[in-house]
Specification:
Elements (H helix, E strand, L loop, with lengths): L1 E9 L3 E8 L6 E9 L5 H16 L5 E9 L5 E7 L2 H14 L2 E8 L4 H9 L4 E4 L9 H13 L5 E3 L6 H10 L6 E3 L13 H15 L16 E3 H16 L2 E6 L4 E6 L17 E6 L8 H8 L1 H7 L4 H9 L10 H19 L2 E7 L2 E7 L8 E5 H6 L3 H10 L13 E4 L5 H7 L4 H11 L4
Parallel strand pairs: 1-4, 4-10, 5-6, 5-7, 7-8, 8-9, 11-16, 16-17
Antiparallel strand pairs: 1-2, 2-3, 11-12, 12-13, 14-15
Helix pairs in contact: 2-6, 4-5, 7-14, 11-13, 14-15
Length: 453
């Protein structure tokens, strides 16, 4: 069987192979193969996913014209960011990193200490970002941090996204330490007070990802199978979310996985709330909750719910619940699905509330004042569910509806009239990768999966 494109999504718990054809005429999603991710060698999981896809397509052979991939396996893209003031340049650098699909392992503000440098050496990072200072502003912190990081000679990509007036000095510092080949200079992520400019840095982060994800165990042979883009899975979801927002309007995407829950928002604050916003928020924002996953982090979710309360919700004894948890599988069976749905709701609720801004009262010499801290999601026209849980659980729409209907006078979560869309084909991340080369086909396929006419 001949197909145009195969896109792999290599996750922490599952590996998916999605097949597409007729991309230049009438784009079609042909089918999907599944396997558990084989951490010891991801290629084993890839082969099993292809075999599963062949079974579903009822073919013994696949002739594939091009192959893409996204990955969040092996810890995904591990980054650290180092800036001047946390609420300003560090925040901007953080938003760029998260928007690209990175997992942030370390964040610092100010000049790096010996403790910071030792920690950076031990973290086994993929990329480091240095920021600091608005354009034509403070320069000492970025220069000192650049000198210290270059001196570590980590031989990994270092992105400089700070005050533009010292770009040549930064280049010279890295030349002196024979690290110039690892330096990437881009626009300042915080060029002016209250201005975030993270898109260029986000693109660079994704571009250098491919060179370093292949260092994960088993990934060194990934190029034997994949001949097109390999990008971080969360970054792929963000890419397609940004394209979709241009088509249908403001949206929030929730991706509940086995290890993490990611929330992506692509929208502006509502007009009525603009006057209360204290600090700028990016138009597109991602948060990743590393403690909220329905398989690897199931114990965290159970703790958040409460074991006795969870047992009561499931109409089980605590002992029977424990048996169910002890035998819990990455791909839940019929008996486990009600438990997975309860875990998915808790992951959804916590992740949305952490991503959302909130009203805060402050007191000053002029009296009490209400401000907004964080991002206002009340303008969202759509709340989109993707990821293994929200696309496969039988009560996925009810799970999201329960969250939207829950009253909250403080949080700026999406309103109850936000329309719920489900990525029924579970292809959103794969389409984000596909959009790098076939953007029109990717959007058309996503609209079909979301059942948007």
């Amino acid at each position: 069987m001949i197909i145009d494109t195969l896109v792999f999504e290599i996750g922490s718990t599952t590996t998916v192979a999605n097949a597409f054809t007729n991309l230049d005429t009438n784009p079609l999603f042909l089918g999907q193969g599944f396997s558990e991710t084989t951490v010891e060698d991801v290629n084993i999981g890839l082969s099993k996913a292809i075999d599963n896809l062949k079974q579903k397509l009822q073919t013994s052979e696949l002739i594939i014209k091009e192959t893409f991939a996204s990955s969040s396996a092996a810890g995904g893209l591990k980054m650290s960011v180092h800036g001047l003031v946390y609420d300003m340049t560090v925040k901007a650098a953080k938003e760029a990193a998260l928007g690209a699909g990175a997992n942030l392992s370390y964040i610092t503000a100010g000049v790096l200490s010996d403790y910071d440098l030792n920690k950076i050496k031990k973290l086994n990072l993929n990329i480091i970002m240095i920021a600091g200072g608005v354009d034509y502003g403070e320069t000492r912190t970025a220069l000192e941090n650049s000198s210290k990081i270059a001196g570590l000679k980590l031989n990994i990509p270092i992105i400089y996204a700070g005050n533009k007036v010292i770009q040549e000095e930064i280049s010279e510092i890295f030349r002196m330490h024979n690290q110039e080949e690892f330096l990437y200079i881009t626009k300042n992520v915080y060029p002016k007070i209250d201005i975030l400019a993270v898109e260029d840095a986000r693109i660079i982060i994704q571009n250098v990802f491919e060179k370093h994800i292949t260092k994960a165990k088993g990934m060194e042979r990934i190029r034997e199978i994949v001949d097109q883009n390999i990008i971080p899975t969360p970054g792929a979801v963000m890419d397609i979310a940004i394209l979709l927002q241009k088509e249908i309007g403001d949206l929030v995407v929730v991706d509940i996985g086995g290890a993490t829950t990611d929330v992506h928002s692509v929208l502006e604050a509502s007009k009525e709330n603009e006057k209360y916003i204290s600090d700028p928020e990016p138009f597109f924002k991602r948060t990743v909750e590393g403690d909220l996953g329905v398989f690897i982090n199931k114990d965290n979710l159970i703790s958040l719910i409460g074991k006795e309360k969870l047992a009561m919700k499931l109409n089980l004894s605590v002992e029977k619940l424990q048996e169910l948890v002890d035998d819990y599988q990455p791909l839940p069976d019929k008996e486990q699905i009600p438990l997975t749905e309860e875990l998915a709701y808790m992951a959804l609720e916590k992740a949305i509330l952490r991503h959302s801004g909130k009203y805060v009262s402050i007191y000053s010499t002029s009296g009490k004042k209400t401000i907004i801290e964080g991002k206002d999601l009340t303008n969202a026209k759509y709340l989109i569910g993707t990821g293994g849980a929200l696309t496969r659980l039988p009560h996925n729409i009810q799970i999201i509806t329960e969250l939207l209907n829950k009253k909250d006078e403080v949080s700026l979560k999406p309103k109850r009239d936000a329309k719920i869309l489900i990525d029924k084909d579970y292809i959103m991340a794969s389409l984000g990768v596909l959009s790098k080369k076939h953007p029109e086909a990717a959007i058309e396929l996503l609209k079909k999966s979301l059942e948007i006419r």
